TrEMBL record:
Polar residues: bias regions: 32-49
Region (Disordered): 1-50
SUPFAM superfamilies in the record: Pili subunits
Species this protein is from: Crateriforma conspicua
Species classification: Bacteria, Pseudomonadati, Planctomycetota, Planctomycetia, Planctomycetales
Bilayer-spanning residue ranges: 65-88
Name recorded for this polypeptide: Type II secretion system protein G
Protein keywords: Membrane, Transmembrane, Transmembrane helix
């Protein structure tokens, strides 16, 4: 007979059933207490809680492993590449802008030094001296904080008077002195001529040339018979084999060749170029290629008359493309994109582009051409 279930069933349990249930009831486990009189605690008691695994899979309780998939890795690399491609031109442009600012500052310092020289001697320095003499860059050394270097120019040495002092210790020190003021930061490469750059070594390279004018000025005397710079229409004139001290009155003591002054610039100081940038020309592109910094160390042709170390002409254009052995290294140029910095005769610095109209370029290259040039036109 099956007894009905429910509360009534529990009321009819016998005493034996209650005794059996009491004997098989789970014991209540309480934490052991530490005896206050002893330092030995009782063994830790169980809390009576039992954890039961609900899954029989051996890895069910482990966390998933984190990481990149191959596709995710390729996407990250592609994003980084795009970011570098976008940022690199901006970084390069910022660096070039900083170099241009430094170049402009060099020209400002040079322009101020020439004005200080003019204030002292009431004349402009000679652009270049023939043979192996110094140039206008040497004359303005005291005005750019290099008086100690200017003091060793060997004006009184016997070899200097004849242009044969290229082996003296003073000559070597001047020829190899690379001053940051005469070096454009964008002109990379060695600061001093070495064996890989041509047959002339141990000469510091110059980034800035004086304006000899807008006339056709050929560099090689042996081709034309004359350089023409003695009567150029720029601010700097060449004095052939003129070995003299700074501030002398006449070239070769000839009164018909007095030095120029700012009063000679009748076109206006703000409309006439005084100093411009130039860039080094590889020897493979021309027969004689060098622009030296302080000393007119000339070994270029048999006549010893190459004034291109110190002077340039605006006749040939800006960043002129050269042909092999053209002997015309008198043009202005720069390592900046699209143009060149020039210091005007009033000391200001302008940036003129390669696309500047030829008539305007020739006008700002002459000191007395009577051209009318608007400041906004260049």
């Amino acid at each position: 007979m099956i007894e009905p279930s429910g509360p009534a069933t529990r009321r009819h349990l016998s005493a034996a059933d209650h005794e059996w249930a009491a004997q098989n009831r789970p014991a209540k486990i309480t934490p052991a207490r530490t005896n206050a009189t002893t330092s030995d605690p009782s063994p830790p008691a169980s809390t009576g809680t039992v954890r039961v695994r609900t899954s029989l899979h051996p890895f069910a309780a482990r966390r998933p492993i984190a990481g990149f998939t191959l596709v995710e890795l390729l996407v990250v690399i592609a994003v980084i590449g795009v970011m570098v491609a976008l940022l690199l031109p901006a970084v390069q442009a910022a660096r070039e802008a900083a170099r241009q600012t430094s170049c402009k500052n060099n020209l400002k310092q040079i322009g101020l030094a020439i004005h200080n020289y003019h204030a002292t001697y009431q004349k402009l320095p000679w652009g270049a001296k023939g043979g192996w003499g110094p140039s206008w860059t040497t004359d303005i050394l005291p005005n750019i904080g290099e008086a100690s270097l200017a003091s060793i120019v060997p004006y009184g040495e016997p070899g200097y008077a004849t242009g044969n002092d290229q082996d003296s210790k003073h000559f070597r020190l001047l020829a190899t002195s690379a001053l940051p003021t005469f070096r454009c930061p964008s002109q990379f490469g060695p600061t001093v001529f070495n064996e890989s750059m041509g047959r002339i070594t141990g000469r510091a390279l110059n980034s800035y040339l004086g304006n000899a004018g807008s006339d056709v000025i050929h560099n090689n005397y042996s081709i034309t018979g004359r350089l023409g710079m003695e009567s150029g229409n720029g601010l700097f004139q060449a004095c052939d084999f003129c070995h003299r001290s700074s501030g002398s009155n006449f070239c070769d003591n000839r009164p018909e060749m007095p030095p120029l002054s700012f009063a000679s610039v009748t076109d206006g100081l703000s409309n006439t170029v005084m100093v411009a940038e130039t860039r080094f020309i590889d020897f493979a592109q021309c027969g004689v290629c060098d622009h030296f910094m302080l000393y007119h160390t000339d070994f270029d042709d048999l006549n010893g008359r190459d004034f291109s170390e110190a002077l340039a002409s605006l006749y040939f254009g800006i960043n002129l493309e050269r042909v092999p052995n053209d002997h015309l290294q008198m043009s202005i140029g720069s390592y900046h994109p699209g143009g060149v910095h020039v210091a005007m005769a009033d000391g200001s610095v302008r940036y003129i582009t390669e696309q500047l109209d030829e008539a305007i370029r020739l006008a700002i290259g002459s000191r007395n051409g009577r051209e009318v040039v608007e400041m906004s036109s260049f």
